[in-house]
Specification:
This protein is of the alpha/beta class and 395 residues long. Helix content is 32%, strand content 25%. The strands form 6 sheets. The protein has an 8-stranded mixed beta sheet with strand order 14-13-10-15-18-19-20-21, sandwiched between helices. The chain has a 5-stranded parallel beta sheet with strand order 2-1-5-6-7, with helices on both faces. It binds cytidine-5'-monophosphate (C5P).
């Protein structure tokens, strides 16, 4: 494998020498391009010694008296990993700027580029950064999400460059993606449901849909065809193997599930479906006339239970549980009651904020009891672990 690493001016550039060593140890060829400012953060001497190749910094290489040919770099590499990718370089990638060797190489790359953004948490949350990430994703760049934890600024949050081992595995997975679900038909439910009270109000919950989307993305990257039935979220998926069905209420989600159920081999029910809906939806906006107001509710159909009852021997159902007391016992009860093949319990002890968080911790129960515990990790990683587990119970 020929790995081209682009290094930009972030503190976490100190991790890149270890990453280079890992690639070399595993038999890869490595070349590096550094932005001029990044040479203040890590020495080109270290980078060239470990990568066993001269480092490209400027277009004109003063040492060798030759031109650093960005097109040749692009032709040589199997993959271009830009790590750390600063907010500045991210912005240039989104705009197609071409003011240094790294940017010119990006524009000349024939193969895929992977970036690993790393910056302070406020910067990472900034709308311009979010917008630029959306843009590069739309341009076909793969983005490795930053880790959560201590940052160089002293703050703690999202923005850390993942450890060299993680970056190594992400690149390898990208180069030789596992296709263990090739053409398998999967259904995933995600997000909350909104149950209308009147034309402007609803009963809902805080589910962000991130876990369901991460599961859909991981299945699709492993070759599955995914029907993603999602309640209202801000998330979008552009994966060609994901067919997104957008719904609002539990009844609409139920209809969509029934429509697609026969063709489904594996159903993962990650949606936080409202248990009840108003018995009547007021036709006009309810006026603030009386001191108190009661809304009568009626139970929604349990979609996971329906799928559990209506599955053939070739279909599998996996549900989720979020419990505040007797979690394991309740998860096991749910498994039996809903005739599911597995229940993924969101563990709240160490990870109080499960909704809207980018991380999660889960315990998976199958018919034999506790099958697997996945420690706190990004929802992307947890999705991968859940699907690795599903591999052990699929037909
Ligand atoms: O019963 P409870 O809501 O705790 O069960 C959670 C699991 O059941 C989740 O997998 C959820 O997607 C699913 N569920 C459903 N339809 C409902 C309620 C929950 O599919 N009406």
């Amino acid at each position: 494998m020929r790995i081209l690493i682009g290094i930009t001016a972030g503190i976490s550039a100190y991790k890149i020498p270890l990453l280079i060593r890992k690639f070399i140890k595993e038999g890869c060829e490595v070349r590096c391009i550094m932005t001029p400012d990044s040479t203040d953060f890590v020495s080109p001497l270290v980078i060239s010694t470990l990568s066993k190749n001269p480092v490209g910094i400027e277009f004109w290489n003063k040492e060798t008296g030759s031109w650093n040919n960005h097109v040749a770099y692009g032709e040589w590499a199997d993959v271009f990993l830009i790590a750390p990718c600063t907010a500045n370089t991210l912005n240039k990638l989104a705009q197609g700027a071409c003011d240094n060797l790294l940017m010119a190489t990006y524009l000349s790359m024939r193969h895929n580029t992977i970036i690993s953004p790393a910056m302070d948490l406020e910067m990472y949350q900034h709308p311009t950064v979010k917008r630029n990430i959306e843009q590069v994703l739309a341009d076909g760049v793969r983005v490795i999400p930053p880790d959560h934890g201590e940052l160089a600024s002293g703050l703690s949050g999202e923005g850390r460059l993942p450890e060299p081992e993680t970056l190594y595995h992400e690149v390898m997975a990208h180069l030789a993606p596992q296709k263990d679900y090739l053409n398998i038909k999967v259904m995933v439910t995600a997000g909350p449901t909104y149950e209308a009270i009147d034309p402007v109000r609803f009963i809902g919950n805080h589910s962000s849909g991130k876990m369901g989307f991460a599961i859909a993305e991981n299945f699709a990257s492993r070759g599955a065809w995914v029907t993603l039935i999602t309640g209202p979220t801000t998330l979008e998926s552009s994966h060609e193997r994901i067919h997104c069905v957008k719904v609002t209420s539990a009844l609409e989600m139920f209809d969509a599930v029934k429509t697609h159920w026969d063709e489904t081999e594996i159903g993962v029910f990650a949606a936080a479906v409202a248990d009840y809906r108003p018995t009547q939806i007021a036709e006009e906006k309810i006026k603030k006339t009386s001191e108190d107001l009661s809304i009568e509710l009626i139970k929604n159909p349990d979609i996971l239970s329906w799928a559990g009852l209506n599955k053939s021997s070739k279909q599998r159902t996996i549900g989720f549980a979020l419990e505040t007391n007797d979690a394991d016992q309740n998860a096991r009860g749910k498994l039996a009651r809903k005739n599911a093949d597995a229940i993924v319990l969101n563990v709240l002890e160490e990870n109080e904020k499960c909704f809207n968080s980018d991380t999660n911790k889960v315990r998976i129960f199958d018919v034999n009891g506790l099958a697997l515990e996945l420690p706190v990790a990004s929802k992307t990683k947890i999705a991968q672990g859940i699907i690795d587990f599903i591999t052990t119970i699929r037909v």
